Each structure stands twice: as C-alpha cells, then as structure tokens.
User: Which sequence fits this backbone?
C-alpha cells in the first residue's frame, strides 16, 4: 500500500505541477495600453459680428442713422436728401393785367421774408407767371414785373437784393386751365424757390 500511496502522491504532484506549468504556459492576455489622446487645441473663433438693425433698409444701421425710420443717404446722416422745391403761394397773386400785389399777399410775404432771414446766404429765385390772356410778349413782360414786385417787397422787409433773382415765364407754365377765370387767377402768380 505504500506504493499505492506513493503513486497517488506522485500522480497528485505531477498533476499539480502540470497545472502550474500549463497555466503558466498559457498566453496571457496583455492588458491594452491606455492610449493617451491629446485633444487638438480648440481654436477659439471670433464671435460673429452682431448684425445691426436697419429699420428703414437704407444700408445705414439704426445706431448711425439720424432718421432710422425713413430711407436716406449716408451723405445726409441717414436722412432723406432735402429737395429744394418751389414754394408755391397761391396768395401771391395779381389782378388781371397788373403787377401790383394784392393786399392779401402781404401777410404771406411777411412770413416768407422772416423765413429767408434764417438763411442769409441762400439765394432764391422768384418766378413770375401770367395767365394766357393777351399777347405772349405782354404776358412775358407782365410776369417779369410781377417777380420784381415781390422782390421789392422782400427787399423792403430786410432781404438782400443780391439774394433774390427774378425770372419771368409768361404763360408757359400754367398750374390751372386758362379756359375760365378761376384757373386764370391761379396762373397769375409768383413762385419762390431756393437755389
């Protein structure tokens, strides 16, 4: 029995040795190396420029537009260009075949003179007109006389004569029909426009 015990002992030893040897011979799994990932530097982008509001759509942002609700030009601060327009006063009228101012025109001319004094370096053109009654030559002369009558009134109210330029147009530019007295009365007039 000794031999049997001895053999079992040897078999157990062989088995134990074999287990150790075989387990040590197995290929070991290599733990994956942790890969160090270096993040690319984050490129900081410049913030998007804030789109400025342009309410009137004229290309000039409201923050730089003096008139943000009305289209204008950059030359005029975003405001519309001021168009020099004839100043028509229906009250600056004359009787038929006359260059004498109607008294109803005096108050209007006084207001015009006061306004002109605010612009002492501005020149104004006084355009005289007539109705179509009479000859063309007579109507032209009459329109010049009417423009001069307005000039004299304004000069007497403190406007420099050198700032007033008179021009007669005769019957060429009617504002109403010449087929009735109401229209002809409107055509006997003087218009004032800044130059």
Assistant:
């Amino acid at each position: 029995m000794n031999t049997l015990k001895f053999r079992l002992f040897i078999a157990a030893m062989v088995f134990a040795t074999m287990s150790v040897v075989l387990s040590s011979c197995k290929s070991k799994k290599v733990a994956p190396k942790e890969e160090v990932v270096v993040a690319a530097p984050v490129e900081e982008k410049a913030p998007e420029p804030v789109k400025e509001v342009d309410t009137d759509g004229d290309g000039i942002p409201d923050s730089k537009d003096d008139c943000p609700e009305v289209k204008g030009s950059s030359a005029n601060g975003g405001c519309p260009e001021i168009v020099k327009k004839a100043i028509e006063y229906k009250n600056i009228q004359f009787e038929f075949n006359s260059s004498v101012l109607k008294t109803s025109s005096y108050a209007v001319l006084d207001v015009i003179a006061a306004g002109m004094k605010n612009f002492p370096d501005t020149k104004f053109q006084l355009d005289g007109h007539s109705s179509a009654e009479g000859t063309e030559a007579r109507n032209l002369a009459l329109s010049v006389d009417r423009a001069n009558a307005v000039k004299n009134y304004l000069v007497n109210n403190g406007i420099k004569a050198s700032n007033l330029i008179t021009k007669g147009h005769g019957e060429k530019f009617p504002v109403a029909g010449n087929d009735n007295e109401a229209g002809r009365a409107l055509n006997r007039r003087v218009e004032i426009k800044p130059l």
Notes: DSSP finds four helices and four strands in the chain. The mean pLDDT is 79. The first strand starts at residue 87 and ends at 93. Helices lie at 2-25, 106-117, 136-156, 181-187.
